[in-house]
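WARN no homologs supplied; continuing
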Amino acid sequence: MINCTCVVQEGQSPDLHQDVLKGTLGEFSERAFGQGADIKWVRVPPGSGFTAGEPSTSSVVSMVSNEPLEAPHRELLLRELVDLWVGQTGCSVDEIVAVLADPAQA
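OK structure emitted
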């Protein structure tokens, strides 16, 4: 399984679309890595997240790949990940931080 953590602002679009996003992220993980995703959903309570002194509307989606990714491949996958998030939530690209980390070295 591919570890995936989604940090979202409670009560905003990504939080309200959790079930759809989990399914879409699972499909992305299968296509990108050949494995399903183990998704952890972290809600930031209202008033606990800020950007530039205003309540935050940003989300973070972080996945750990099952193998090291070359930069061009990582860029393509990140674009796809951001596009699916934006498409499902209606947020802007400025409201999503996407991370595709390489697996930890033993």
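The chain has a mean pLDDT of 94.
OK
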